[in-house]
Amino acid sequence: MSTFSFLQDSKEDAAFRRDAREWFEENLPKELRGWSVRPPPELITPWHRKLFEKGWIAPHWPTEYGGTNMPLTQRLILQEESGRIGAPVLSRQALGHIGPILMRYGTTQQKARHLPKMLSGEVHWCQGYSEPNAGSDLASLRTRADLDGDQFVVNGQKIWTTWAHHAHWMYALVRTDQDAPRKQAGISLILIDLATDGITIRPIKTIADDEEFCEVFFDNVRVPAGNLIGEMNAGWTVAKALMDHERIGNASPQLAIDGLDRLKKIARATGAMDDPVFQDKITRIELDILAQAAVFAHTVELANADMPIGAGSSFIKLVGTDTVQEIGDLLLEAVGSHGADLEAIDTPDGPIDAGGFFRQARRNSIFAGTSEIQRSVTAKRVLGLP
Ligand SMILES: Cc1cc2nc3c(=O)[nH]c(=O)nc-3n(C[C@H](O)[C@H](O)[C@H](O)COP(=O)(O)OP(=O)(O)OC[C@H]3O[C@@H](n4cnc5c(N)ncnc54)[C@H](O)[C@@H]3O)c2cc1C
């Protein structure tokens, strides 16, 4: 069987792919297939649990922390098969972002307390980085945490915090030194239990008609000093390492593979596929996904070997974003005047949501660092431009 990673499956991998496809078919409930937005916690948590019980929830984690150390080819196969069947993309905040950071910078107690519940899905996490005046220029953040005995007192506001209204914990960047000579130097990363007094969470409705993110307000919120990750005032270094993980995760080909599958089904149903020019566009997308998967595999391999990926995380996020947005554009082209429909479109392969995918894809060029910023980083650090 062929893969999206330029590799022909070995005998062992082909058997793994067959098992994975069969398992997804048997275990992924029909109502969880083909979502364009994130399904609500009551639907997604049991699916998380199922993957956990199967041992596939964090195949990239080392075995000492409950992962599998699964070979890269098989991890990619899992991504491909998830995409093919239209499985929802799981929240990455815990397993993809703060989990690996805790493994590297956390204390033994922090790891023991938090990692197992991230795997089992008992505890949901959110990322408190962006603020109303600190997005691309994140180091300008102003939410402050002042030490008072063995507690921080947190005051300020975060915004665009994905799933804060469903999360139990937040990892947050806060200013712990107001007088640091460089704004990056006075920042720390802390873990905040969202059940603490003084926290207000307000969901924000998006154009895709969901409440994916929130505003979060902190009013004299007391956080144990033991919730600091890494060194005090060294949060910027930790934050950058976390953003590398975030960008790599966002470049996974799963969403593109799901989008391509929708595109082919819709194009067959509407007749767009009969047009050779349209067929050519689909072929180009297929080639782009091949390229994306190859770059993704290479970057994951470097990251796993603890080798520096440098500006690779910016480049790969850019490639993944462009591909997914092109698929969204082609979906709209294929459905013509139905592009604005909020309901899924009926096809002989079942109802398919095209407009939702398009709207969802618009977000990719903003979160985890906008495409403009990633282009600047790539220009400077990869191409060496001034
Ligand atoms: C779906 C979604 C989920 C998100 N989830 C989270 C989350 O969970 N946690 C969190 O902390 N944040 C989250 N964010 C916020 C996201 O990280 C920020 O929106 C992003 O970093 C951009 O910041 P901003 O919105 O303040 O835009 P700004 O930084 O104000 O940028 C506005 C525009 O100006 C451009 N621009 C800015 N500076 C430059 C420059 N130097 N050169 C060229 N162009 C520039 C940008 O590219 C953009 O087009 C999420 C965003 C989205 C869309």
Structural class: alpha+beta
Total number of β-strand segments?
Answer: 8
State the CATH architecture of the largest domain. Answer: Up-down Bundle
Overall CATH class of the largest domain = Mainly Alpha
| Mean pLDDT across every amino acid position | 90
Task: Describe the overall structure.
The chain is α+β, with helices and mostly antiparallel strands and 386 residues long. The chain has three domains: 11-90, Butyryl-Coa Dehydrogenase, subunit A, domain 1, CATH 1.10.540; 125-234, Beta Barrel (Butyryl-CoA Dehydrogenase, subunit A, domain 2), CATH 2.40.110.10; 251-382, Butyryl-CoA Dehydrogenase, subunit A, domain 3. 46% of the residues lie in helices and 14% in strands. The protein has helices at residues 11-27, 41-54, 72-85, 93-105, 108-120, 235-250, 254-270, 276-304, 312-335, 355-363, 371-382, and strands at residues 125-128, 144-148, 151-162, 169-175, 187-193, 199-204, 213-224, 228-229. The strands form two sheets. It has a four-stranded mixed beta sheet with strand order 1-4-5-8. Strands 2-3-7-6 form a four-stranded antiparallel beta sheet, with no helix packed on it. A hairpin with an 8-residue loop joins strand 6 and strand 7.
Write the layout of secondary structure elements.
Blueprint: H1 11-27, H2 41-54, H3 72-85, H4 93-105, H5 108-120, E1 125-128, E2 144-148, E3 151-162, E4 169-175, E5 187-193, E6 199-204, E7 213-224, E8 228-229, H6 235-250, H7 254-270, H8 276-304, H9 312-335, H10 355-363, H11 371-382
Parallel strand pairs: 1-4
Antiparallel strand pairs: 2-3, 3-7, 4-5, 5-8, 6-7
The chain binds flavin-adenine dinucleotide.
